[in-house]
Specification:
CATH architecture: Roll
Strand content: 35-45%
CATH class: Mainly Beta
Shape: globular
Order of helices and strands: HEEEHEEHEE
Largest sheet: 7 strands, antiparallel
CATH topology: Pnp Oxidase, Chain A
Distance between the termini: 26 Å
Radius of gyration: 16 Å
Length: 151
């Protein structure tokens, strides 16, 4: 049962990829897969590397309200028991171009997409600060509040 941000963090460690959604200039919703890197202790901020010339960066520049959705693997009994956990984070995005911040969040697995590491031209980070977190695990659902996040 999910009761706290620590429970959400523990559930997220089993999820490698998520979907980051933005609002486009015409009001449509754009969504794309992003890596959660599995090694993150989640405390309300998610950090994603991308390139500054991507549409999602332009979307965030226009509207910083984003959604990030995580879905865990239900395992062998998924159809017969619990389906895994679904977590949706309503967040405020901030674009970060500080290499010291890049270093703090870099994972070797990112070299696949960013060949020169944190020195890759055009690299930028998206900091997604949670405002509200919804979850559903097949039997339990609800919201987890972060202190001060709902202001």
């Amino acid at each position: 049962m999910i009761r706290s941000i620590q429970d959400i963090s523990e559930a997220m460690k089993d999820i490698d990829f998520c979907t980051l959604s933005t609002r486009t200039a015409d009001g449509s919703i754009g969504a794309r897969p992003m890596s959660n890197n599995r090694s993150v202790d989640y405390v309300g901020d998610s950090w994603f590397f991308t390139y500054e010339n991507r549409q999602m960066v332009r979307d965030i520049e226009q509207n910083a309200n984003i959604g990030v959705t995580y879905m865990s693997n239900p395992g062998m009994l998924g159809l017969l028991a619990k389906p895994g956990i679904f977590i949706h984070v309503e967040a405020r995005a901030t674009l970060v171009k500080d290499q010291r911040v890049f270093e703090a969040h870099w994972d070797r697995g990112l070299n696949r997409w960013f060949k020169q590491g944190i020195d890759t031209p055009g690299v930028v980070m998206i900091q997604a600060t949670a405002r509200r977190i919804h979850y559903w695990d097949g039997t339990d659902e609800g919201e987890v509040e972060l202190a001060g996040a709902f202001a």
